[in-house]
Amino acid sequence: MSQHHPVRAQIRSSGYFSRIGPGIVTGAADDDPSGIGTYSQTGAATGYKTLWAAPFLLPFAFAIQETCARIALVTGEGLARVIKRRMPQWVLYVTVFLVALANTVNIAADLSSMAAVVRMFVSIPQLPTVLVIAVVVAIAEIVIPYHQYARVLRWLCLSLLSYIAVLAIAKVNWHEVASGLSHINVSFLHPSRTALATLIALAGTTISPYLFFWQAAEEVEEGGLAPDISASHIHAMRGDVFAGMLSGVFVMFAIMTTTAATLHNEGILDITSPEQAAAALKPIAGNFAGALFALGILGTGLLAVPVLAGSTAYAVSEAMGWKESLERRPSQAKQFYAVIAASMIIAIALNFLGINPMRSLIVAALLNGLSAPLLMAIIWWLARDKRLLGQWVSPWWSTILVGLGALLMAALPILWLFAR
Protein backbone atom coordinates (compact mmCIF):
# COMPACT_ATOMS: atom_id res chain seq x y z
CA MET A 1 0.00 0.00 0.00
CA SER A 2 1.41 3.37 -1.03
CA GLN A 3 2.09 5.97 1.61
CA HIS A 4 1.82 9.72 1.29
CA HIS A 5 4.57 12.19 1.89
CA PRO A 6 4.14 12.88 5.65
CA VAL A 7 3.02 16.50 5.31
CA ARG A 8 0.70 15.64 2.41
CA ALA A 9 -1.03 12.73 4.15
CA GLN A 10 -3.87 15.01 5.22
CA ILE A 11 -3.57 17.55 2.45
CA ARG A 12 -7.33 17.89 2.11
CA SER A 13 -7.95 18.43 5.81
CA SER A 14 -8.52 21.72 7.61
CA GLY A 15 -4.82 21.78 8.47
CA TYR A 16 -3.69 22.03 4.86
CA PHE A 17 -1.45 25.07 5.30
CA SER A 18 0.39 23.52 8.25
CA ARG A 19 0.95 20.30 6.33
CA ILE A 20 1.79 21.62 2.87
CA GLY A 21 4.80 19.85 1.43
CA PRO A 22 8.15 20.66 -0.18
CA GLY A 23 6.61 22.63 -3.04
CA ILE A 24 5.90 25.71 -0.94
CA VAL A 25 9.49 25.88 0.31
CA THR A 26 10.79 25.52 -3.24
CA GLY A 27 8.44 28.23 -4.49
CA ALA A 28 9.45 30.60 -1.70
CA ALA A 29 13.16 29.89 -2.25
CA ASP A 30 12.60 30.92 -5.87
CA ASP A 31 12.19 34.50 -4.60
CA ASP A 32 15.67 34.72 -3.13
CA PRO A 33 17.60 38.03 -2.93
CA SER A 34 18.86 37.39 -6.47
CA GLY A 35 15.27 37.18 -7.66
CA ILE A 36 14.26 40.23 -5.62
CA GLY A 37 17.16 42.20 -7.10
CA THR A 38 16.31 41.13 -10.65
CA TYR A 39 12.58 41.82 -10.28
CA SER A 40 13.25 45.19 -8.61
CA GLN A 41 15.70 46.26 -11.31
CA THR A 42 13.28 45.18 -14.04
CA GLY A 43 10.35 47.06 -12.50
CA ALA A 44 12.46 50.18 -12.02
CA ALA A 45 13.87 50.09 -15.56
CA THR A 46 10.83 49.06 -17.58
CA GLY A 47 7.87 50.04 -15.42
CA TYR A 48 4.78 47.92 -16.03
CA LYS A 49 5.88 46.84 -19.52
CA THR A 50 7.52 43.56 -18.49
CA LEU A 51 4.78 42.28 -16.15
CA TRP A 52 3.69 39.81 -18.85
CA ALA A 53 6.76 37.75 -17.96
CA ALA A 54 5.16 36.61 -14.67
CA PRO A 55 2.14 34.72 -16.09
CA PHE A 56 4.22 33.66 -19.11
CA LEU A 57 6.89 31.95 -16.98
CA LEU A 58 4.51 30.33 -14.47
CA PRO A 59 3.49 27.26 -16.53
CA PHE A 60 7.11 26.53 -17.46
CA ALA A 61 8.28 26.88 -13.85
CA PHE A 62 5.47 24.65 -12.62
CA ALA A 63 6.06 21.98 -15.28
CA ILE A 64 9.80 21.60 -14.62
CA GLN A 65 9.36 21.46 -10.83
CA GLU A 66 6.50 18.95 -11.16
CA THR A 67 8.72 16.82 -13.39
CA CYS A 68 11.61 16.86 -10.92
CA ALA A 69 9.26 15.91 -8.08
CA ARG A 70 7.72 13.13 -10.20
CA ILE A 71 11.12 11.61 -10.99
CA ALA A 72 12.07 11.61 -7.30
CA LEU A 73 8.74 10.16 -6.14
CA VAL A 74 8.79 7.31 -8.66
CA THR A 75 12.48 6.39 -8.35
CA GLY A 76 13.07 7.29 -4.69
CA GLU A 77 16.32 8.96 -5.79
CA GLY A 78 17.66 12.47 -6.18
CA LEU A 79 18.13 14.03 -9.61
CA ALA A 80 21.91 13.63 -9.85
CA ARG A 81 21.70 9.96 -8.87
CA VAL A 82 19.11 9.34 -11.60
CA ILE A 83 21.26 11.16 -14.18
CA LYS A 84 24.25 9.05 -13.10
CA ARG A 85 22.27 5.85 -13.59
CA ARG A 86 20.60 6.68 -16.90
CA MET A 87 22.93 8.99 -18.82
CA PRO A 88 26.61 9.19 -19.90
CA GLN A 89 29.11 10.15 -17.23
CA TRP A 90 30.12 13.39 -18.94
CA VAL A 91 26.49 14.58 -18.80
CA LEU A 92 26.50 14.02 -15.05
CA TYR A 93 29.74 15.95 -14.51
CA VAL A 94 28.69 18.88 -16.72
CA THR A 95 25.34 19.04 -14.94
CA VAL A 96 26.82 19.01 -11.45
CA PHE A 97 29.48 21.56 -12.41
CA LEU A 98 26.90 24.00 -13.80
CA VAL A 99 24.71 23.66 -10.72
CA ALA A 100 27.62 24.05 -8.28
CA LEU A 101 28.97 27.10 -10.15
CA ALA A 102 25.60 28.86 -10.42
CA ASN A 103 24.71 28.06 -6.82
CA THR A 104 28.00 29.31 -5.40
CA VAL A 105 27.77 32.62 -7.25
CA ASN A 106 24.15 32.89 -6.15
CA ILE A 107 25.07 32.29 -2.49
CA ALA A 108 27.76 34.96 -2.71
CA ALA A 109 25.31 37.45 -4.19
CA ASP A 110 22.61 36.65 -1.63
CA LEU A 111 25.02 36.97 1.32
CA SER A 112 26.23 40.30 -0.04
CA SER A 113 22.72 41.72 -0.37
CA MET A 114 21.67 40.45 3.07
CA ALA A 115 24.72 42.10 4.63
CA ALA A 116 23.97 45.33 2.77
CA VAL A 117 20.42 45.35 4.16
CA VAL A 118 21.67 44.72 7.72
CA ARG A 119 23.97 47.73 7.31
CA MET A 120 20.91 49.89 6.67
CA PHE A 121 20.10 49.54 10.36
CA VAL A 122 23.47 48.82 11.97
CA SER A 123 26.66 50.63 11.02
CA ILE A 124 29.09 47.71 10.67
CA PRO A 125 31.49 46.73 7.86
CA GLN A 126 30.16 44.68 4.93
CA LEU A 127 32.58 41.72 4.97
CA PRO A 128 32.31 40.87 8.69
CA THR A 129 28.52 40.96 8.30
CA VAL A 130 28.72 38.55 5.36
CA LEU A 131 30.92 36.24 7.44
CA VAL A 132 28.57 36.24 10.45
CA ILE A 133 25.47 35.56 8.32
CA ALA A 134 27.21 32.75 6.45
CA VAL A 135 28.44 31.09 9.64
CA VAL A 136 25.01 31.27 11.29
CA VAL A 137 23.25 29.80 8.24
CA ALA A 138 25.85 27.05 7.79
CA ILE A 139 25.77 26.01 11.46
CA ALA A 140 21.96 25.92 11.45
CA GLU A 141 21.85 23.76 8.32
CA ILE A 142 24.53 21.36 9.56
CA VAL A 143 23.49 21.02 13.20
CA ILE A 144 19.68 21.08 13.12
CA PRO A 145 18.00 17.82 11.91
CA TYR A 146 16.10 18.25 8.67
CA HIS A 147 12.60 17.57 10.04
CA GLN A 148 13.10 20.48 12.47
CA TYR A 149 14.93 22.66 9.96
CA ALA A 150 12.12 22.25 7.40
CA ARG A 151 9.68 23.83 9.86
CA VAL A 152 11.96 26.86 10.10
CA LEU A 153 12.09 27.10 6.31
CA ARG A 154 8.30 27.09 6.09
CA TRP A 155 8.02 29.91 8.63
CA LEU A 156 10.55 31.94 6.65
CA CYS A 157 8.17 31.71 3.69
CA LEU A 158 6.02 34.27 5.52
CA SER A 159 8.64 36.93 4.83
CA LEU A 160 7.33 37.01 1.27
CA LEU A 161 4.13 38.58 2.56
CA SER A 162 6.11 41.79 3.03
CA TYR A 163 6.13 42.39 -0.72
CA ILE A 164 2.41 41.82 -0.98
CA ALA A 165 1.97 44.34 1.87
CA VAL A 166 4.09 46.90 -0.01
CA LEU A 167 2.00 46.28 -3.13
CA ALA A 168 -1.15 46.98 -1.14
CA ILE A 169 0.00 50.43 0.04
CA ALA A 170 1.74 51.60 -3.14
CA LYS A 171 -0.12 53.82 -5.63
CA VAL A 172 -0.48 51.36 -8.50
CA ASN A 173 -1.95 52.24 -11.89
CA TRP A 174 -4.01 49.07 -12.35
CA HIS A 175 -4.99 49.99 -15.92
CA GLU A 176 -1.31 49.97 -16.89
CA VAL A 177 -0.82 46.76 -14.90
CA ALA A 178 -3.54 45.07 -16.95
CA SER A 179 -1.89 46.33 -20.13
CA GLY A 180 1.54 45.13 -19.00
CA LEU A 181 0.18 41.68 -18.16
CA SER A 182 -1.64 41.22 -21.46
CA HIS A 183 0.83 42.70 -23.96
CA ILE A 184 4.28 41.29 -24.72
CA ASN A 185 6.35 44.44 -25.15
CA VAL A 186 9.43 42.84 -26.70
CA SER A 187 9.99 42.64 -30.44
CA PHE A 188 11.56 39.25 -31.13
CA LEU A 189 12.20 40.29 -34.72
CA HIS A 190 14.51 43.15 -33.70
CA PRO A 191 15.13 42.76 -29.96
CA SER A 192 17.65 44.87 -28.09
CA ARG A 193 20.44 43.31 -26.08
CA THR A 194 19.17 45.01 -22.95
CA ALA A 195 15.68 43.54 -23.37
CA LEU A 196 17.07 40.06 -24.01
CA ALA A 197 19.45 40.24 -21.04
CA THR A 198 16.46 41.22 -18.88
CA LEU A 199 14.47 38.22 -20.12
CA ILE A 200 17.42 35.85 -19.55
CA ALA A 201 17.77 37.13 -15.97
CA LEU A 202 14.01 36.93 -15.30
CA ALA A 203 13.79 33.40 -16.67
CA GLY A 204 16.96 32.33 -14.87
CA THR A 205 15.87 33.55 -11.47
CA THR A 206 12.34 32.12 -11.86
CA ILE A 207 13.36 28.78 -13.41
CA SER A 208 16.55 28.20 -11.43
CA PRO A 209 18.65 25.01 -11.69
CA TYR A 210 19.17 24.77 -7.94
CA LEU A 211 15.40 24.41 -7.49
CA PHE A 212 15.39 21.32 -9.75
CA PHE A 213 17.78 19.45 -7.47
CA TRP A 214 16.27 20.79 -4.25
CA GLN A 215 12.71 19.79 -5.24
CA ALA A 216 13.81 16.23 -6.00
CA ALA A 217 15.98 16.02 -2.88
CA GLU A 218 13.19 17.29 -0.63
CA GLU A 219 10.76 14.69 -1.98
CA VAL A 220 13.20 11.92 -1.06
CA GLU A 221 14.43 13.60 2.14
CA GLU A 222 11.09 14.31 3.76
CA GLY A 223 9.42 11.12 2.64
CA GLY A 224 11.90 8.62 4.04
CA LEU A 225 9.68 5.95 2.46
CA ALA A 226 9.72 3.52 -0.43
CA PRO A 227 9.02 5.20 -3.79
CA ASP A 228 5.41 6.38 -3.82
CA ILE A 229 3.71 5.88 -7.16
CA SER A 230 0.08 6.17 -6.13
CA ALA A 231 -2.14 8.33 -8.30
CA SER A 232 -3.39 10.18 -5.22
CA HIS A 233 0.13 11.16 -4.16
CA ILE A 234 1.08 12.29 -7.65
CA HIS A 235 -2.05 14.45 -7.61
CA ALA A 236 -1.23 15.84 -4.16
CA MET A 237 2.38 16.51 -5.19
CA ARG A 238 1.18 18.40 -8.25
CA GLY A 239 -1.10 20.61 -6.17
CA ASP A 240 1.67 21.27 -3.68
CA VAL A 241 4.18 22.19 -6.39
CA PHE A 242 1.67 24.43 -8.17
CA ALA A 243 0.83 26.24 -4.92
CA GLY A 244 4.54 26.86 -4.32
CA MET A 245 5.33 28.12 -7.81
CA LEU A 246 2.16 30.23 -7.97
CA SER A 247 3.12 31.94 -4.72
CA GLY A 248 6.66 32.52 -5.99
CA VAL A 249 5.50 34.02 -9.30
CA PHE A 250 2.88 36.16 -7.55
CA VAL A 251 5.62 37.66 -5.37
CA MET A 252 7.59 38.27 -8.58
CA PHE A 253 4.57 40.18 -9.91
CA ALA A 254 4.21 42.10 -6.63
CA ILE A 255 7.86 43.23 -6.60
CA MET A 256 7.88 44.28 -10.26
CA THR A 257 4.58 46.13 -9.87
CA THR A 258 5.66 47.89 -6.69
CA THR A 259 8.98 49.09 -8.10
CA ALA A 260 7.24 50.16 -11.31
CA ALA A 261 4.69 52.17 -9.31
CA THR A 262 7.31 53.77 -7.08
CA LEU A 263 10.86 53.83 -8.39
CA HIS A 264 10.10 53.95 -12.12
CA ASN A 265 7.43 56.61 -11.74
CA GLU A 266 9.87 58.72 -9.71
CA GLY A 267 12.48 58.48 -12.47
CA ILE A 268 14.72 55.99 -10.62
CA LEU A 269 15.55 53.59 -13.46
CA ASP A 270 18.71 51.95 -12.14
CA ILE A 271 19.13 50.34 -8.72
CA THR A 272 22.73 49.98 -7.61
CA SER A 273 22.16 48.53 -4.12
CA PRO A 274 19.50 46.85 -1.96
CA GLU A 275 19.68 49.89 0.33
CA GLN A 276 18.72 52.16 -2.54
CA ALA A 277 15.78 49.94 -3.49
CA ALA A 278 14.46 50.03 0.07
CA ALA A 279 15.34 53.64 0.81
CA ALA A 280 13.76 54.87 -2.41
CA LEU A 281 10.43 53.46 -1.28
CA LYS A 282 10.41 55.42 1.98
CA PRO A 283 9.37 58.86 0.68
CA ILE A 284 6.74 57.26 -1.52
CA ALA A 285 5.17 54.57 0.67
CA GLY A 286 6.56 55.51 4.07
CA ASN A 287 9.20 54.06 6.38
CA PHE A 288 7.06 50.96 6.83
CA ALA A 289 7.56 49.99 3.17
CA GLY A 290 11.33 50.33 3.41
CA ALA A 291 11.43 48.15 6.50
CA LEU A 292 9.25 45.55 4.81
CA PHE A 293 11.55 45.49 1.80
CA ALA A 294 14.54 44.88 4.08
CA LEU A 295 12.65 42.17 5.98
CA GLY A 296 11.91 40.41 2.70
CA ILE A 297 15.57 40.45 1.65
CA LEU A 298 16.68 38.99 4.99
CA GLY A 299 13.88 36.44 5.27
CA THR A 300 14.20 35.12 1.74
CA GLY A 301 17.98 35.10 2.03
CA LEU A 302 17.84 32.99 5.19
CA LEU A 303 15.50 30.67 3.30
CA ALA A 304 17.35 30.54 -0.03
CA VAL A 305 21.01 30.29 1.04
CA PRO A 306 20.50 26.94 2.83
CA VAL A 307 18.53 25.70 -0.19
CA LEU A 308 21.36 26.74 -2.54
CA ALA A 309 24.06 25.13 -0.42
CA GLY A 310 21.91 22.06 0.19
CA SER A 311 21.11 21.52 -3.49
CA THR A 312 24.83 21.73 -4.31
CA ALA A 313 25.62 19.15 -1.63
CA TYR A 314 22.91 16.80 -2.87
CA ALA A 315 24.06 17.09 -6.48
CA VAL A 316 27.75 16.53 -5.70
CA SER A 317 27.14 13.74 -3.17
CA GLU A 318 24.74 11.86 -5.44
CA ALA A 319 27.20 12.14 -8.32
CA MET A 320 30.09 10.86 -6.20
CA GLY A 321 28.08 8.13 -4.49
CA TRP A 322 28.47 9.65 -1.02
CA LYS A 323 25.92 9.39 1.77
CA GLU A 324 23.67 12.40 1.62
CA SER A 325 20.92 13.67 3.88
CA LEU A 326 20.20 16.70 6.01
CA GLU A 327 18.60 14.25 8.43
CA ARG A 328 21.95 12.53 9.08
CA ARG A 329 24.40 13.81 11.66
CA PRO A 330 27.61 15.38 10.30
CA SER A 331 29.58 12.31 11.44
CA GLN A 332 27.30 10.13 9.30
CA ALA A 333 27.62 12.17 6.08
CA LYS A 334 30.97 13.93 6.32
CA GLN A 335 31.45 14.57 2.58
CA PHE A 336 27.89 15.86 2.19
CA TYR A 337 28.30 18.47 4.93
CA ALA A 338 31.81 19.25 3.71
CA VAL A 339 30.32 20.32 0.38
CA ILE A 340 27.89 22.65 2.21
CA ALA A 341 30.79 24.15 4.17
CA ALA A 342 32.97 24.48 1.05
CA SER A 343 30.25 26.22 -0.96
CA MET A 344 29.74 28.73 1.86
CA ILE A 345 33.49 29.35 2.20
CA ILE A 346 33.89 29.95 -1.55
CA ALA A 347 30.87 32.28 -1.53
CA ILE A 348 32.41 34.26 1.33
CA ALA A 349 35.69 34.49 -0.60
CA LEU A 350 33.87 35.84 -3.67
CA ASN A 351 32.61 38.72 -1.55
CA PHE A 352 36.20 39.86 -1.04
CA LEU A 353 36.32 40.74 -4.75
CA GLY A 354 34.26 43.81 -3.88
CA ILE A 355 31.51 43.23 -6.44
CA ASN A 356 28.52 45.56 -6.13
CA PRO A 357 25.76 43.68 -4.24
CA MET A 358 22.98 44.59 -6.67
CA ARG A 359 25.07 43.86 -9.75
CA SER A 360 26.07 40.46 -8.34
CA LEU A 361 22.39 39.56 -7.94
CA ILE A 362 21.78 40.23 -11.64
CA VAL A 363 24.93 38.26 -12.63
CA ALA A 364 23.70 35.29 -10.57
CA ALA A 365 20.32 35.41 -12.32
CA LEU A 366 21.99 35.56 -15.74
CA LEU A 367 24.20 32.58 -14.88
CA ASN A 368 21.13 30.59 -13.87
CA GLY A 369 19.46 31.57 -17.12
CA LEU A 370 22.41 30.33 -19.17
CA SER A 371 22.73 26.97 -17.38
CA ALA A 372 19.02 26.12 -17.08
CA PRO A 373 18.31 25.08 -20.73
CA LEU A 374 20.75 22.16 -20.74
CA LEU A 375 19.47 20.91 -17.39
CA MET A 376 15.86 21.22 -18.55
CA ALA A 377 16.68 19.21 -21.68
CA ILE A 378 18.20 16.44 -19.55
CA ILE A 379 15.16 16.37 -17.24
CA TRP A 380 12.84 16.36 -20.29
CA TRP A 381 14.66 13.27 -21.58
CA LEU A 382 14.48 11.47 -18.23
CA ALA A 383 10.78 12.27 -17.79
CA ARG A 384 10.00 10.42 -21.06
CA ASP A 385 12.08 7.33 -20.15
CA LYS A 386 9.62 4.44 -19.67
CA ARG A 387 12.38 2.17 -18.40
CA LEU A 388 12.91 4.68 -15.59
CA LEU A 389 9.37 5.80 -14.80
CA GLY A 390 7.20 3.10 -16.35
CA GLN A 391 3.56 4.18 -16.55
CA TRP A 392 4.41 7.31 -14.56
CA VAL A 393 6.22 9.13 -17.36
CA SER A 394 5.33 12.79 -17.62
CA PRO A 395 1.97 13.58 -19.27
CA TRP A 396 1.92 15.20 -22.68
CA TRP A 397 1.27 18.72 -21.38
CA SER A 398 4.27 18.56 -19.06
CA THR A 399 6.52 17.16 -21.79
CA ILE A 400 5.53 19.99 -24.14
CA LEU A 401 6.00 22.72 -21.52
CA VAL A 402 9.41 21.48 -20.31
CA GLY A 403 10.65 20.95 -23.88
CA LEU A 404 9.36 24.31 -25.10
CA GLY A 405 10.75 26.05 -22.01
CA ALA A 406 14.20 24.57 -22.65
CA LEU A 407 14.12 25.69 -26.29
CA LEU A 408 12.99 29.23 -25.44
CA MET A 409 15.62 29.66 -22.71
CA ALA A 410 18.30 28.31 -25.07
CA ALA A 411 17.18 30.68 -27.82
CA LEU A 412 17.46 33.83 -25.69
CA PRO A 413 21.31 33.80 -25.37
CA ILE A 414 21.60 33.06 -29.11
CA LEU A 415 19.35 36.01 -29.94
CA TRP A 416 21.40 38.14 -27.56
CA LEU A 417 24.61 37.34 -29.46
CA PHE A 418 23.12 38.62 -32.74
CA ALA A 419 21.19 41.56 -31.29
CA ARG A 420 22.41 45.13 -31.42
- Low-pLDDT segments, ≥5 res: 10-19
- CATH-scheme architecture: Up-down Bundle
Number of domains: 1
First CA to last CA: what distance?
59 Å
Q: Number of DSSP helices?
A: 19
Instruction: Give the overall average pLDDT.
Output: 81
Features:
mainly alpha, 0% strand, Amino acid/polyamine transporter I, 420 residues, 75% helix
Describe the structure.
This protein has helices spanning 16-19, 22-29, 33-46, 53-75, 79-86, 89-118, 126-143, 146-156, 161-169, 174-182, 193-206, 209-223, 231-264, 274-285, 287-320, 334-351, 357-383, 386-389, 396-418. With 420 residues, the protein is mainly alpha-helical. It has one domain (6-418): Amino acid/polyamine transporter I (Up-down Bundle). The radius of gyration is 20 Å and the shape is globular. Residues 10-19 have low confidence and may be disordered.
Outline the fold blueprint:
Blueprint: H1 16-19, H2 22-29, H3 33-46, H4 53-75, H5 79-86, H6 89-118, H7 126-143, H8 146-156, H9 161-169, H10 174-182, H11 193-206, H12 209-223, H13 231-264, H14 274-285, H15 287-320, H16 334-351, H17 357-383, H18 386-389, H19 396-418
Task: Summarize this structure briefly.
The chain is globular and about 55 Å long. The longest helix is centred in the middle third of the chain and has 34 residues, at 231-264. It has a single domain, classed as Amino acid/polyamine transporter I.
